[in-house]
Amino acid sequence: MDDLKKIMLPAGLVLLGLIVYASTFTVQQYETAIKLRLGEIVGSDYEPGLHLKVPLLNNILKFDARIQTLDSRPERFLTIEKKDVIVDSYAKWRISNAAQFFRSTGGDSARTARLLSERINTSLRNEFGKRTIQEVVSEDRLELMTALTKEIDTQAMELGVDVVDVRVKKIDLPPEVSESVYNRMRAERERVARDLRAKGSEAAERIRADADRQRTVILADAYREAEETRGLGDAKAAETYANAYTADPEFYAFYRSLNAYQQSFANSDSTLVISPDTEFFKFFRSMNGASVAPDAEPDVAARPQSAQPFSPYGFSSRAD
Asked: In terms of CATH, what superfamily is 68-173?
């Protein structure tokens, strides 16, 4: 009897342990679970810890409650300008209602990703269809992401999940569109360059014309001042000469004759044929230029002994 008790006691403990193990289930911190009874949901969203169930009657399904990443394939969308863009996006989501998640997707992650991708693509198509390319690549992009996240999260409630964030990784243009866009950008830049060159040429011509005008005005003013100064100088010189000549007319006549003699006889290679009795040689005949008869004797006593009469032939003669 004692031997039977020794055998039954461990067996009973093992059986009790198996019953307890089959009657409980554990939910981890990163999990959410639902309880099924013959395929019908009878419990969901259990807190982390130990929970009870009916063995063989209840079935427990656990799902990962952590934030997961859905990396969608690049899709082509139309903007409001009817331009194609290729958008590469991703979304962050997690299960918020385990029961609804099981009813909508059967707990299949691949099906969940497909359903979420369809909703994300629909929202992206709607939002891109309201905006231009410039708006989706500029600062309005953050506003676009916020609106997308809010809209998709509302749609994803029927799947029992929360969409935490939706982001666009890259926006590309199709090859056939890229070339036309680049050509249009190049044409626009060339137009701007032509406008700038035209404005520069216009400004250069205006500056050049103003400089030429100023040059002409400066030269005209300088010429006017020079002519005025020259006129004043000529008037002053004429006044000075007039005052000097009227002071001693005989000396002025003598001075003019000396200049004429110097200029006439300066070139030794020239031959001058002229009569000695002409008015040109009057100072050769007399000191004061008065006319003297050819046969008259000069008044030697009336003149200084050192004075010598000029010869019309370029040399002086002395009376013995």
From this structure: Band 7 domain (3.30.479.30)
